[in-house]
Design brief:
Distance between the termini: 37 Å
Helix content: 10-25%
Shape: globular
Largest sheet: 6 strands, mixed
């Protein structure tokens, strides 16, 4: 965000008749300090902040999506903290969590009825090693169904494919 006001003005958008709220949080900044007073620049994750954000849009957006910068770099394993956060966000009504940070592809699973992509790996990288030059591209259809005035969201046509970055200078 460019200001505290922009950060506090949560936006709900709509595409093809489906309204959504999108949040992005980070567990760490890799040692980069956020300037004093400028904490609106990066949303560092904590349960209370996520709760407050999500409660502002819950019931107003058809789907809530969260991007999470989390996990252990270069680990293919889902950390306990990732599982805790995924479970908590699911309990708040988040339906899709898209993770990144480990620089390697991690598993995809449902936590309750929340689709969790733990890590997309690297889509474009100058890192060394096949695991760090591999990324995951995922596509899905978000489907809204309304029966007797009650709407629900589901995912259809979930597809994933691996990408590979090749460079003569690093390969």
């Amino acid at each position: 965000y460019s200001s505290h006001e922009e950060r506090d003005n949560l936006v709900i958008k709509e595409v093809n008749g489906i309204s959504y709220a999108f949040f992005a949080y980070t567990e760490s900044t890799n040692g980069i300090r956020i300037p004093n007073g400028d904490n609106y620049l990066v949303d560092t994750y904590n349960n209370e902040k996520a709760y407050q954000d999500i409660m502002k849009v819950k019931g107003k957006a058809d789907i809530i999506i969260v991007s999470m910068h989390w996990g252990d770099e270069y680990s293919f394993n889902i950390s306990n903290r990732q599982r805790e956060i995924a479970s908590y966000l699911s309990s708040l009504g988040v339906k899709l969590i898209i993770g990144h940070h480990p620089h390697v592809v991690e598993p995809i699973e449902y936590v309750n009825d929340t689709l969790v992509i733990y890590s997309l790996g690297n889509s474009l990288s100058a890192q060394r090693g096949i695991d760090r030059l591999t990324g995951l591209m995922l596509s899905l259809d978000i489907v809204k169904t309304t029966i007797d005035g009650i709407s629900s969201i589901s995912f259809e046509n979930i597809k994933a494919g691996l990408t590979y970055t090749y460079s003569e200078t690093i390969n």
